[in-house]
Amino acid sequence: xxxxxxxxxxxxxxxxxxxxxxxxxxxxxxxxxxxxxxxxxxxxxxxxxxxxxxxxxxxxxxxxxxxxxxxxxxxxxxxxxxxxxxxxxxxxxxxxxxxxxxxxxxxxxxxxxxxxxxxxxxxxxxxx
Length: 128
Known about the structure:
Layout: E1 3-4, E2 12-13, H1 27-42, E3 46-50, E4 55-60, E5 70-79, E6 82-88, E7 100-105, H2 109-121
Antiparallel strand pairs: 1-2, 3-4, 4-5, 5-6, 6-7
């Protein structure tokens, strides 16, 4: 990954970014998005894919406490030379948004879905 400071001094990806930072037409990218969506649905969660940015939002339609539906966003991004799922923690007051945590390699959607379901099930965990 190439990082270069723009005029503002904030680091960003240069040019096209990493070779794994693909687009919606890439079969690996689409397979990862669909795989996580299927795994989330198999756990009783709703899943919304955003192919343009490589994201899946998991929605807990019926939270156990009867509160508003909870949403957790996962992004598909490079990590350690492979595609990984990253959790977004933008709603946590103690963490400046957008904070991302590597979750699992993209080839392990069942593990990613299990962990996302756990985040959505835990009360007061900071999920979006």
